[in-house]
Each structure stands twice: as structure tokens, then as C-alpha cells.
Amino acid sequence: MGGLSPADQGSAFRNAPTGMAVTTTDGVLTGVNPALSSLLGRSPAELHGRSLFDLIHPDDVAAVQETRRGLQAEPSRPARYECRLLRANGSIVPVQVITSWVEATPHGDPTHLIKVIEDITERKALEAELRHQALHDPLTDLPNRVLFGDRLRHALDRGRREHTPTCVLAIDLDDFKAVNDAHGHTVGDRVLIAFAERLRSVLRASDTAARLGGDEFMVACENTEPADAELLAGRLRTAAAEPLVLDQITVSVGLSIGIGYAAGGTDPQAAYERVIREADQAMYAEKTQRRQ
């Protein structure tokens, strides 16, 4: 705003569509524009004289203070960061803040900070949605192979630290190709969605079920002995046994389930591939036995 008259600078500050604030170098608010006042649900009088740090989510304060120290060390470079601010009603708004250091002037203006504070709620929601899409199956909304692998590694890491067992269930729908051939892929997709819901219904909070592709599913079970995994498999078979009624079509789905086991204290890197392979082999053995 250096090329504007003081009156024009004040007008630009007041009418900016994005939140703006003037603070001391310690973060005490000395001026806020209507956009920031509206964003925070607080009047300018309520905000004047308050420390901006009082309005920052407690979990974000340390990072913002570190950014401020960086700006003090190198004031010629504007600082950019993201944090969460607390509204008057207790709700939280994610913001991006750009802070510029303004040196004292010969006319008596003290050194101060100018902050541009932008509401990034929509961007954060989009980022969260994109992260979700990257880690979940688009048809069933179950975790995909990438997220399953991460959760299984987490379970195995915990198993090594706390000496707790980990089990993996490999699940395959029997004769699913016949469903697609007889009724079409649209019905086949609805069968997968319905099965995923039944799978969710029998899981414990610590279990992670994933669709790996086609009619292949897996479940990672933290702190679980094989006997408990067998109970889970039994609950799943019971849940899946009831025929699915899709409009005028009734579809029965059979399951083949195999269980892999990693004892507590096992090296996670060594156990990861082995426990998956063990579950797959047991599942295919059961499928072969069913066909005989």
C-alpha cells in the first residue's frame, strides 16, 4: 500500500474482502478489518488489544510462535503459515496467514506487523476429500490396498513394541463371476457394496477392512489371537449367509476366508509379506476344498 495516500490505505484495509489485521511485533491486535471481525464472530472492540495467540488453537500455537521467531530473525521476508483460529462461538476455522514486518517510521509509527488472514475452509475440505479418495475404494468406500498396508504395518509395529499378536483375514467371494455373468456388472457392484456393509457391521473398532480389488477383501486385526480371528470370520460368514435382495433379484454369496498370524514381538518387516501370504494361502485352500 506504499503508493496510496493514508486515506486510500485505510479504505483498502476496511474494504478488503479478506481478513486483515495490524498487530504489535508480539502479536497484540491494534487493528482489524470488518472481514476478519466477521470471520471470527467478534467485534473490532472485542479484538482490539487481544493477543492473536489467544485466538489460535492451542495445538497450533507453538508452530506459529516458531514462525514469528523466523520473521523476527529475517524481517525482510514475509512469513506464510496455516493455523486454526477460534471463533466466538467455539467453532474452529482454518486460515492461511501472510505476515509482513513493517519497520518504524520517522513520523512516529512503531514497528508493527500486517497480517492477511484468509479462510481456507473450502480448500481444507477439498484436500481432505482428495486424501480420502486416494486411500479408499471408490465403490465400497473401504480402505484400499495402500491404506490397508499402512494400517497393517502399524499393527505389526505395535505388536513388536507391546508383544501383541496380529492377524490378517483374506476374504474372497465364491463364484462372484457367475453373479456378474448372470445379472450384469451393475448388480455385481451392488453385491460388493452390500457385502462391504455387512463386513463393516461385524468389525471391531481396531479392525481395518479393505477392498483390494475385484471380490478380494482383507482385514487387519490388531492385538488378535487366531482364535479371536476365527470368531470374527464366523461372524462374517453368518452375516454374509443371508441372501441379498436387490430389487427383484435375490443373490446368495459364499465366502472363502483364510487367516494369517504374526506373534507378538515379531519383526514387522519380516512379518508383513508373510502374514498376507499365509492368509491368502489359507483362503485359497478353503476355496479349493469347497469346490471338491
TrEMBL record:
Domain GGDEF: from-to ranges: 164-292
Domain of life of the source: Bacteria
PAC domain ranges (all copies): 79-132
One Pfam family in the UniProt entry: PAS_9
SUPFAM superfamilies registered for this protein in UniProt: Nucleotide cyclase, PYP-like sensor domain (PAS domain)
Domain PAS: start-end pairs: 5-66
PANTHER family, per the entry: BIOFILM ARCHITECTURE MAINTENANCE PROTEIN MBAA, DIGUANYLATE CYCLASE DGCP
Name used for this protein in its record: PAS domain S-box/diguanylate cyclase (GGDEF) domain-containing protein
Taxonomic path: Bacteria, Bacillati, Actinomycetota, Actinomycetes, Geodermatophilales
